[in-house]
Design brief:
mainly beta, 6-stranded mixed β-sheet, 3-stranded antiparallel β-sheet, 2 helices, 50% strand
């Protein structure tokens, strides 16, 4: 993905050149972290990053796919419980949550386990109802 600033606009606006011929104007924030510049974009699609096998950039919001629906989180780190609740899987104790990683392998996520949505390789989250003997 290439970026360049838009002439005549504030430095906080750049054009992202992604797949295909489309260009998207996005606002970014440049922060200092231990002497290094960190570019933070408004929203990142972690599924796209995971499928492309690239780490998601720092963002204010993270778009995630849970089962076949998209949801946005305003924090980079959330719990398995929060993911299930956002997906409407209530009561959360009746569901198993797994994250599908690049390459197709699945990793179980516990209810209180913290999930870094900026982790390299996450593609999607999938839920599975537990049968009456599980949980």
């Amino acid at each position: 993905m290439n970026t360049h600033t838009v002439p005549g606009t504030p430095e906080a606006e750049v054009i992202l050149e992604g797949r295909g011929a489309s260009e998207v104007l996005v606002e970014v924030e440049v922060l200092q972290d231990h002497g290094h510049e960190v570019i933070v974009i408004d929203i990142v699609d972690i599924e796209e990053c995971g499928r492309d096998n690239r780490p998601p950039p720092h963002a204010h919001r993270y778009k995630v796919k849970i089962d076949h629906n998209y949801f946005v989180f305003d924090r980079r780190v959330v719990t398995g419980r929060e993911i299930l609740e956002r997906a409407g899987k209530i009561p959360v104790t009746k569901y198993e949550l797994e994250k599908r990683m690049h390459g197709g392998h699945y990793v179980a996520v516990g209810l209180e386990e913290k999930v870094d949505l900026g982790q390299h390789g996450i593609e999607v989250f999938e839920t599975f109802p537990l049968d009456e003997t599980e949980g």
